[in-house]
Amino acid sequence: YIQIYAEKIQINQVWVGTMLVLRDVTKETEADRMKEEFVSTVSHELRTPLSSIYGFTELMLNREIDPPKQRKYLTTIHSETGRLTTLVNDFLDVQRMESSEQRYQMATFDLVQLAAELIDFHDASHTTHELSFEAVGPIMIDADAEKIKQLLNNLLSNAIKYSPDGGNVAIRIENHDGFAEITIRDQGIGIPQEAMSKLFDKFYRVDNSETRKIGGTGLGLSICKEIVKHHNGTIDVESTIGAGSTFTIRFPIAVISTILTYEE
Ligand code: ADP
Predict the structure, then answer these.
(1) Which residues of 177-205 are buried (b: 16+ CB within 10 A; e: fewer)?
(2) Beta carbons of 196 and 236 less than 8 angstroms apart
(3) I need a surface site. Which of 47, 84, 176, 261 has the fewest CB within 10 A?
């Protein structure tokens, strides 16, 4: 973004010319955009669950409700509370990452085993989608296991969230030229080409009729990017509208695993 303004040049109060000033205001504009998106995200993502929790608790306090209905209301209150917790945790994570307060507990572990456990857990709790997992382990990496779980969880939740019920989400991990390569492929709504360059920015959300119905803060992928960066990895995405998206992450394989492979 360029801001242009003209300035009169005078010498001894005599007008001698005009100076045209061009200023690059990309950073300021970007900061303004983020502030606006932050306010709109917070107001929507906080208000919606809060008003639903408030409404349902009020209803239950003021009226006699039969047990099946009670259960239904409590299920909503429970999931909306979960949504608020995720929101607060995401905000805090972004805050910590920016102030470099985030501490990483590095260890060497098998990425395949960690992913298998996580996928089992997702599989049990999401009956709406079919998850398939393909990997031959062990593939050892040096990383913070909790952060890697958070990364995979974010990508898996997105794959589920942005694809219709009954869709398949395929996770694959392989040793690819000395890198642990994770691919997460969904059959969802896809991502428009013009969104690609902003996808990993804080608070960025694709804004269309489909995504508006699906809640979100636009923080998940920015957290993923930070985690990947901290582990000297890369994250890429390929997508086709209406057909699905594939996120690919690569991490360097731990030295110990390279030696093991060599000895075999
Ligand atoms: P959100 O909380 O909105 O899901 P993210 O940072 O995780 O935030 O993702 C940013 C945006 O990228 C989302 O709002 C969505 O528009 C798009 N997106 C992310 N993952 C997918 C996916 N698997 N399929 C389609 N769109 C996606």
Answers:
(1) eebbbbbbbbbbbbbeeebeebbbbbbbb
(2) no
(3) 47
Q: Which pLDDT band, with edges at 50, 70 and 90, does 210 fall under?
A: confident
Q: Is 244 in the pocket of ligand 1 (CB under 6 A)?
A: no
**Confidence class for position 260, pLDDT limits 50, 70, 90:** low
The pLDDT confidence band at residue 262, using thresholds 50, 70 and 90, is low
Choosing from 205, 224, 247 the residue with most ligand 1 atoms within 8 A of its CB, the one to mutate for a pocket test is 205
Segment 83-125, tens digit of pLDDT: 899 888 888 888 888 777 778 899 999 999 999 999 998 877 7
Asked if residue 211 has its Cβ within 6 Å of ligand 1, the reply is yes
- Of the candidates 96, 93, 99, 133, the one whose C-alpha atom is nearest the C-alpha of residue 114 is 133
For ligand 1, the distance from its centroid to the CA atom of residue 158, given in whole angstroms, is: 6
ipTM score assigned to the predicted complex: 0.99
